Amino acid sequence: MTVARILTDTRLGTRLLTAFLALALLSAGVGFVSWQGARQMGRDMHEIAQVHIPSVESLQALIGNLDRLRAAQRSLLLPGIRIQEWNRQFSLIYSVKLRCEEAVRRYEARHADHPDWRTFRAALAAWDRENDTFFALLRELQALDLGPPVPLLRALSGFREEHSGMAARASTNPVPSSCALESWLAHYHTENARVTRGLQDTAKAHQDFHAALDRFQALTAALPSSPSAAALYHDALLPAMTRLEAGLAGVEAEVRQAEALYDKVYAQSVGPCRARQVEALGRLQTLIAEEVAASHGSLRDSEAAARSSLRIIVATTAGAFFLAILLGILLTRGIVRPLAQGVAFAEALSRGDLRRQLNLSRRDEVGQLCRALDAMGANLGRSFQEIASGVGTLASSSAELSTIATQLAAKAVLT
């Protein structure tokens, strides 16, 4: 059975309803594909916005804080660092470690079971252990309360050389009454008891040294070769210088111990700490690269889903468009053509042409109408034939009656 035959044998209401249902299904298909595409894009965007971007931000914050921690550790080992900067770096390290722990918690809340994250956590734990050793040694160094030992040793050596030079030049050149050691003793403060006692002894010897130096210079200025000046030099100035050097040497011995501890801290920093540091940061960079790649993958999936949905929507819309045109043409031809034939048939009837027949074999409402018009035409033809036959019979009867009437009139005249 052909499509045209199916269309002509199907009722008109059924055809119209089927066409509307087909268009409705196509529209629903377009809407469903659009909804699926939007839903997939929403899932991908949610994954990017709620998972990958926060994860990358957490890892970047972590690597930034770890870099700051590494820089602070290096700063603590700078030879010429001042005590104020030393304390500031300790405070910075404490705050940075807190921020690192927060970044770890944020990432671990989403990816605690990620194998690469577990590998990084193991590397970070190893780095933390080495850092704990580093900071334990550093705390021992800090407990000595001497500050960075290298600049302190340099200062103590300078003070010794300065005062040795003063004593050597006292008899030939004027020596200033003030010196750098005096200012340093006035400003340097420590809680180290042994160093404090050594500094107190040094301060007393320093006062005695400068008092003897001032008297010696006064005597030599008045009498350059005075025996009293020579006696003062040997009996007061040199013993004061000796005590001053002994005091500075005692402080320097304590600082040397701090220097030995500093060397251990430095070795820990550039050795085990550095090795674990490089490993942990390398693992972290790998994690960041994976998260960025995953976010790019989700973005590509979202774009692919959008392109696929767009293609399906365009194809479905085009199909619906052409189907609507085809159905419109078929339905229009199926209704308008037989109606035009029906109009021509009615016009022929109006002109008295009762022999016209539509002869449509359709089984729909239009076919029923055409068959009814054919039946009406046939009935009208039969009616007109019967009327014509009746008219003939009536004319014959009228002629007979006229003959009879004529005969009766003739008879009446004869009588």
Q: Any overview of this molecule?
A:
- With 415 residues, this protein is an all-alpha fold.
- 87% of the residues lie in helices and 0% in strands.
- α4 (115-143) packs antiparallel against α8 (227-350) and α8 packs parallel to α9 (365-414).
- The longest helix has 124 residues, at 227-350.
- The chain is rod-shaped, with a radius of gyration of 59 Å.
- The two termini are 86 Å apart.
- The mean pLDDT is 78.
SSE sequence, one letter per element: HHHHHHHHH
Strand residues, percent = under 5%
Q: How far is the N terminus from the C terminus? A: 86 Å
> Rough shape?
rod-shaped
* Radius of gyration over all CA atoms, rounded: 59 Å
Helix segment tally: 9
User: What helical percentage do the residues reach?
Assistant: over 70%
Tell me the total number of β-strands.
Answer: 0
Structural class: mainly alpha
Contiguous low-pLDDT stretches (5 residues minimum) are: none
